[in-house]
Amino acid sequence: MPVTAACSEAVGVPRIEIAQLDAVRLCAALLYRHGVDHGFRLLVIKGDAPAHHGLRPPHVPQDVDVLVDPPAFDDYVHDLEHAGWKRLPATFQTEHFSSHSVTMTRDGWPHSIDIHRHFPGFLQDPKVVFEALWERRTPITMAHQPCDAPDRLGSLLLLLLHDARSLRRAVLDRTGQSTLGDLALAEDELSELAALAQATGCASTLAGELALMGVPVQPSPDELASAEYRSWLWKRSGAALGTVPDATAAAWMGMLARTPWRDKPRVALRALWPTRSDVLTNSPRDDHSTWTILRARLSRLVRGSLAIPRVWRRRNATMRASSAGR
User: Fold this and answer.
1) Which run of H or E residues covers position 214?
2) Which residues contact 82 (CB under 8 A, 6 or more apart)?
């Protein structure tokens, strides 16, 4: 049975019921068309693109993701705000450390949209990454509208990076299943994929996956020594454990690792004891009483104290395995 939701674009236009998949495709086409009409370069990523390239079976996306030419990112988001889209309420975490994307919603649409300045796991400069993917772009049809998307190899790297930090992928791996299944690449694709991974800076973050696929890559010492790579190891460690508390703890530990010493106490305080506003934003509830907020904070402390040792051990094991592989 399809998921349905009402969408209406303007006052006076009747509300109609459309399936989630149709809503996502229509929204992707509208975002793309809006960008092109206003002079922006953008790529529709994830969603239908992996299935279009035969990288995984078709599925129903829960949101729409687009990657925007980084220098134009703020202008594009500003244009969408004028078109009626709203950013999700900010928290300390999203305001200070989640700079790679903005999540937006609009009344009448059954899903959110993620506008990406860059994509986590690509360690090269975001502008370099965008140009590398843009150069290899290919049109896919969304709601009868041709939209630029990464080609098969670009989509593959995006899918691998997404899965590497996905809690759902961690669960699938433990049940012996794989998102990619038995993917076969031709010899020329293997060499092209290696070149693209090196150019975009994911030879290190995807070293294990690429090695299993027979892709000849050699992560650079600069990548492996970078703060971005260390942050990525925290994200992977939290995702690999497969629970939300572990992933949350890993995200904050990664933030602390790349935060200047003078700011570490402030970040640690917000990780352990969030503001009232952050509590209500992260977990909306009808009861805003002092006791309810206190209980949520204490519950967070308990979950964090249990998760931190697990994440620490997993991260150290990942680092040892990475060092042994080199």
Assistant:
1) none
2) none
Mean pLDDT in residue range 306-314: 91
Decide if pLDDT at 118 tops 80: yes
CB atoms under 10 Å from CB of 175, counted, come to 7
Q: Is the dihedral of CA 53, 68, 199, 224 positive or negative?
A: negative
281 and 294 Cβ atoms separated by less than 8 Å? no
Integer Cα distance of 326 and 316 in angstroms: 16
Residue 285 has pLDDT above 80, yes or no: no
Do residues 123 and 220 lie in contact, with contact meaning Cβ atoms separated by under 8 Å? no
User: pTM here?
Assistant: 0.85
Of 187, 197, 177, 185, the C-alpha closest to 128 is 197
Q: Which residues make Cβ contacts (< 8 Å) with residue 319, sequence separation at least 6?
A: 233
Residue 154 has which token pair?
């670009």
Alpha carbons within 13 A on the beta-carbon side of 265: 1
